[in-house]
Amino acid sequence: MPTPTKTIPSEELLTQVIDTNATGITILDKSMNIIFWNQWMSNASSLAKEDVLHKNLFSVFPEMKNSRIEKAIELSISKGNASFISHTFNKNPFPLYSNGDKNKSIRQLTYIKPVNLKNNERYCFIQINDSTTSVYREEQLRKMAHDAQSLTKLKSGFVSSVSHELRTPLTSIMGALGLLKNGTDKVNPENMKTMLDIAYNNADRLLLLISDLLDMEKIESGKMDFNFSTININELIDLCITQNKGLSDKYKVQFNFNKDDNIPLVFADKDRIIQVLNNLMSNAVKFEPNGGTIEITSSHENNKVHVAVLDHGSGIPDEFKDKIFKAFTQADVSNTKNISGTGLGLAISKTIIEQHHGELNFDCNNKRGTCFYFTLPVNKQ
What is the pTM of this model? Predict the structure, then answer.
């Protein structure tokens, strides 16, 4: 059989093959002049082949002078050393950009390798891989891992908090009922009423906790129901002040309601707005100094009803402000009263107001306390 003839690919074919490569390739001679420059390099540098061929690399890119890559190229040509330069520990060697956009620098993994020909001519082969996408994915994965770790820690703390919140009232209820069960004939009516009050108040506390947990589950599943009707916000504020009077009396604070007598009606879920108001008022009682007055105002402007609840406490710690509406979180403030909570109230309240196309937010000044406020659109029917 005849020996097959070896076909040497043409220079044009090799150039086309290398130009289709998804990496940057350039070749330098012993004087560091560019003798090959593939299409990827042209796209990333916005420099065509005719702009760079037979020119010194560092005259084309003077900013690369005295850099690590210059030393690596020198060692490659003079001693035949190979090098690898990563963006992780070094700045990107070449000024290359995604689609030529100088705001989107390409993160580079750069390989520098000597090429020795039979005539002892030595060239420097440089290959550049774009690691921007892989680095972005790594960063996203790290962020997801961090978020998952934070969520696990958050939920762990929540479980611990809820366990405590459940155990404390149950212990009180069981203790009060146990005394009544075992010594009814020895307990005078006054003590019996005290024990029943303890059991009732702690049962109410449990009901509040369970309601918050159920509301959070409804929010997460998108199944929170609303029953809208036309309501007067001032009437609801008056009602909530009455509902919170026992709590305010217990902690020796007062409510002062500055109402807008001409406030327009809103189209809202009465029970849900009462839930928000009760949460803001009970939080204000928690922070208001003994003997102080919580200021509540209602007003309207630009087809919106505004309600504000201002306490004169120590304010919200700066490191907690961006977390205040997140579920399962509570500020660690040592000078607050011992009023229980799950860290769910504000998260639930914010969702309720947003479902009414309103806004719930706060202003905080450590010298004058904290003002939580919300808006609701005026009823246009």
Answer: 0.53
| Residue 342 in tokens | 């799950």
Which CATH number applies to 228-377?
3.30.565.10
Q: What is the pLDDT of residue 146?
A: 78
Measured distance CA(155)–CA(159) in Å, rounded? 6
Domain boundaries, the chain: 11-130, 146-221, 228-377
HSE toward the beta carbon, residue 142, CA cutoff 13 A: 6
CATH entry, 11-130, from 3.30.450.20, 1.20.1440.120, 3.40.50.80, 3.30.1380.10: 3.30.450.20
Q: What is the pLDDT of residues 130-171, one digit of tens each?
A: 877 666 676 777 787 777 777 777 666 666 666 655 666 677
Bridge partners, residue 111, by sequence: 84, 127
C-alpha–C-alpha distance, residues 242 and 106, integer Å: 64
For residue range 359-368, list pLDDT tens digits in order: 999 998 766 7
Q: Which CATH architecture has domain 146-221?
A: Orthogonal Bundle (1.10)
How far apart are alpha carbons 310 and 295 in whole angstroms?
A: 5
Query: What is the number of alpha carbons within 13 Å of residue 40 lying toward its C-beta?
Result: 20
Residue 332 has phi, psi (to 5 degrees) of -90, 85
256: nearest Cα among 313, 308, 305, 301: 308
| CA–CA dist 309, 100 (Å, integer) | 54
Could you report the per-residue pLDDT of 54-97, keeping only the tens digit for each? 999 999 999 888 888 899 999 999 998 998 887 665 667 788 88
